[in-house]
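WARN no homologs supplied; continuing
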Amino acid sequence: MTELKDFYDLIDFLSNSSSLYLNLKTFKIQFPIKSVKEALDDTADVETILNDLFYRKQVMWEHHKYENLDWCLNSLKELKDKCDDFSDNYFRRKSSNKDKNQFLASILKTWGSYADEAAKDIIKSDLTDRSLKSILKSFRKKSYPIIVIFIYSLPDGNPTKDTCLKKLEKAWIIQV
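OK structure emitted
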């Protein structure tokens, strides 16, 4: 997680230059660094995203032993739908910074596609406890960089940041 905090700090440092672009190959998106910084500086949006799509979605952090297949499948489908709703909302927003909204929409669409892939993998799997653990581990591993970017964009002492860091730490310990 230190690398991702350093990454966010670099975005913060470079955001004064509007000509630099951030190329997030993993997420298949490219945006001006200034737009990324402005999107992540919108504390209200970031808190809403983290609360609704991470903290309230136990599939993002709960131990697989406490989840059954139906619950996981429904939760992943709901997460995908919520990510798509948030994404569509950002694409439709009329604001002075179109790049900012497109960045948030793109990264949320990516997160939603990870949830959709995991749900499809559960349907195709042999439906054993081991396959569920493996699918959730892969899904979370792909999703956590997005979550960490949002978490570290919040100021120190922010209650949402503190709560989400605790959940992320719990989930990370479970994964290992």
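The longest strand covers residues 21-24.
OK
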